[in-house]
Amino acid sequence: MARILHHGAVNGVTGSCHQLFDASGNSVLIDCGLFQGSEKSGREADPLPIEFPIEQVKALVVTHCHIDHVGRIPYLLAAGFKAPIYATRATARLLPLVIEDALKVGVTRDESLISKVIKLLKRLLVTVEYGKWVAIPGFGATGVRFQVAGHILGSAYVELKLPDGKVVFSGDLGAPYSPLLPAPKAPYRADCLVIESTYGDRLHEARRTRSRNLQKIIKHCLTDAGTILIPAFSIGRTQELLYEIEHIIHREGGDWHNLDVIVDSPLAAEFTQHYQELRDLWDAEARRRVSSGRHPLSFEQLITVNSHVEHIRLVQYLKRSGRPAIVIAASGMCAGGRIVN
Q1: C-alpha span between 243 and 117 (Å, rounded)
Q2: Which tens digit of pLDDT belongs to each residue from 300-315?
Q3: The Beta-Casp domain covers which part of the protein (predicted)?
């Protein structure tokens, strides 16, 4: 069976990067993610954390654009990588935004350098639709295919057909019946399966249970004229929350329409706009709501906060107004970002 080297997400859950070799020694990378939290300890001293040769790497295949799956791409490019980067349509659109933000926050504020990286990234990106087999030039697989993973918009698990069998990389998998996204379907076959297991030892609440719990908290907020602070990732979690909150407000009516819902994250607001433009990738339930005239991600009560000055004004407004509100803010893993300041 094919040889696989793991360059991350083995002894921890971040830094996903897996190298699949063919019989001739050529290879493809599945993701190239950043180590985060305690898992990056001791790595800061390494200015170029690509610790493996890339001369025989014929492509990078991206499962989705969370930073722990794509954050080392700038380092890969700096190491001289010029091969195609395959991604789904949504991932190809969101990825440059993710990388640009990551560079500004963690690497450099040099606009010229950032522009060069993003320009190269866009030039290498190859968009692939779900369910379509695509050949990778120079690599001994008969094809690679993206299938819906249900994690965030554009997320996919990856199937690669080799002469001696099919290899499947799960990426990150979403739960069935997640808001907005079609549910993932298991592959018919896998001779070798590389699967994430971050939450493999726990049972998640059903979506209906989570929605009821969220409604109870919001009702308490309305009664007390309080503020709910929700830390949320800019991609995926923010949009799911907006979708569920809009549905609760729509269903309950009355005083619920007086509730301010505030997204305090410019990046999350930008991603939300892209989510709306890619609504053909939403699940049937979400598309039906749009067809009925509703706006699940841009409803009347929604307020977006962009600049830091606006953020400070928002904090002061919430202190003095006494109006009930929900604030969805950049989480920074609850160690940074606007949720803590």
Answers
A1: 33
A2: 899 998 888 888 888 8
A3: 238-341
